[in-house]
Amino acid sequence: MSISTYNGAAIIAMSGKDCVAIGCDLRLGIQNQTLATDFKKVYKIHDRLYLGLAGLATDALTLNQRFQFKHNMYKLREERNMNPATFAHMVSKTLYEKRFGPYFVEPVIAGIDDDGTPYITGMDSLGAMETSKDFMVAGTAPNSLWGVCESFYRPNLGPEELFETISQCLLSGVDRDALSGWGAVVYVIAKDKSFVKTLKGRMD
């Protein structure tokens, strides 16, 4: 078993019309043994930017603290929040600095710019970025997550429709993966409102 799948994870980011959503499962495990069912893998950077970290849980927690620190320093210096593209390049650079002894994580970044344009990107543990216009997945069940996203996704979804779509994709995907699941949490970010909802899933 790869160290990246040691704790299990499932993360999806999806874009809509002037909105974006990101969700993750809530399971924390050691291989097939479940330790906790309330472990969130998506972290709030600011009101319009969220970061999902799939992979080794200890590395994810460490990196979240580093990225929060770097964003706070940027905000003090520039007197504004990082936009999503700037933050994504900072994450990529941080990971590439450790390429000879990498963090075992797969970041997924979702946010909206000041004009409401959605931004989604994902990267590997070395920081190689790939942006997307529709959706991005990471974790231990990428094949099943890709499949359901390709089936359910439609362009230009509103916030409520986007929430429903990403929720169905996430719950359907983790049902086919033994290392993730036990419910999920979904964050939806739009220009005028943002909300978070917790989903109940199969508890097995």
From TrEMBL:
Keywords: Cytoplasm, Nucleus, Proteasome. It comes from Chloropicon primus. Component of the proteasome complex. GO terms for cellular component: cytoplasm; nucleus; proteasome core complex, beta-subunit complex. One of its GO terms (biological process) is proteasome-mediated ubiquitin-dependent protein catabolic process. It comes from the Eukaryota. It is found in: Cytoplasm; Nucleus. Component of the proteasome, a multicatalytic proteinase complex which is characterized by its ability to cleave peptides with Arg, Phe, Tyr, Leu, and Glu adjacent to the leaving group at neutral or slightly basic pH. The proteasome has an ATP-dependent proteolytic activity. The keyword Nucleus applies. InterPro entries: Ntn_hydrolases_N (IPR029055), Proteasome_beta_3 (IPR033811), Proteasome_bsu_CS (IPR016050), Proteasome_sua/b (IPR001353), Proteasome_suB-type (IPR023333). Belongs to the peptidase T1B family. This is Proteasome subunit beta. Its main location: cytoplasm.
